[in-house]
Amino acid sequence: MKLPRLLTGALLLIFLAAPAHAAPQVGHVRLAHLSPDTPAVDVYLYPFGGDRPKLVLDAVPYGGVSPYQNLGAGQYTVAMRPAGASADTPPVLSANVRVEGGHAYTVAGMGPYKSIRLQVLNDTMELPDGKAGLRVIAASLKERVVTVSAGDLEEDLRFADTPEYTEVDAAMQKITAAAGDETASADVRLAPGSTNTVVVLDGDRGLQLLPLTDAAAPGVTPKGAVDTGMGGLADSGPPVWLVALAGVGVLAVASVLLRLRPRSGGTT
């Protein structure tokens, strides 16, 4: 009887230890075009080292931000090509992003056209009770320095700055960006434990703000995240992408959603 008891004890220890090593296997990535003087681009998402895209977004304009995409944990490559260019055209720029399970990321084209770069931003952080994370991204080329305020937070941001999140009270916050005589503001509800981004954009008549909800909380799927068809997550049909347009003449707080149809998708 001793041997079965030992085996039972060993199996119990293995069972209890397993969850500690079972990290979430799904992460979340969204793509953004935040370079004011760069024309619309086609955005490709590849598995690292692969030449067949899992997803293609056509003609993404300045101010366009996709919903989060559910991705299996691992490494991927994001590439941008001029809108309408063939898939074998060398990309204008590309970047690798390592996706960890339970984490969210934004991959954004940033800076002026002549020195545009892809920036990988971590959208997940641990926060104290009653707090939210807030960051403001300066993507206005007309106003290269903006002063941003939200509650007790006030900071000067230069064009293409991508600061870390600041802990703020989880509440309705009035976010304001000012430069000279130009001012734009938006009331943004910040949920406890959430991370949030406000993008300062060039509009037709001055600055505009685009508020974005990032991760709802660490380890929680961002609201509206959709499957790309990677890692066995594919739905029966192709994924549908929506891009929030906060460009010329459109109020950021009532941004228009543009539906983009992927040109390629599914599992390999």
Radius of gyration: 21 Å
- The count of strands amounts to 20
| Biggest sheet layout | 6 strands, mixed
Report the structural category: mainly beta
Q: In the residues, how many domains can be counted? A: 1
Q: What is the H-and-E element order? A: HEEEEEEEEEEEEEEEEEEEE
Strand content: over 45%
Terminal residue distance:
51 Å
Mean pLDDT equals: 81
Give the overall shape.
flat
Instruction: Point out poorly predicted stretches.
Output: 6-21, 229-262, 264-268
Query: What is the percent of helical residues?
Result: under 10%
Task: Please report the number of helical segments.
Answer: 1
Keywords: Membrane, Signal, Transmembrane, Transmembrane helix
Protein name: DUF4397 domain-containing protein
Pfam families: DUF4397
Organism: Herbidospora solisilvae
Short descriptors:
268 residues, six-stranded mixed beta sheet, four-stranded antiparallel beta sheet, mainly beta, 20 strands
Offer a quick outline of the entry.
This protein is mostly beta strands and 268 residues long. The protein has 1 helix and 20 strands.
Descriptive overview:
- The protein is mainly β and 268 residues long.
- The chain is built from one helix and 20 strands.
- Strand 14 and strand 15 form a beta hairpin.
- The model is unreliable at 6-21, 229-262 and 264-268 (pLDDT under 50).
Write the layout of secondary structure elements.
Layout: H1 2-21, E1 26-33, E2 41-47, E3 55-60, E4 64-65, E5 69-72, E6 74-82, E7 93-99, E8 104-110, E9 117-122, E10 131-139, E11 145-150, E12 153-158, E13 166-169, E14 172-179, E15 182-189, E16 195-203, E17 206-213, E18 226-227, E19 241-245, E20 256-260
Parallel strand pairs: 1-8, 5-18, 10-16
Antiparallel strand pairs: 1-4, 1-5, 2-3, 2-6, 6-7, 8-9, 10-13, 11-12, 11-14, 14-15, 16-17, 19-20
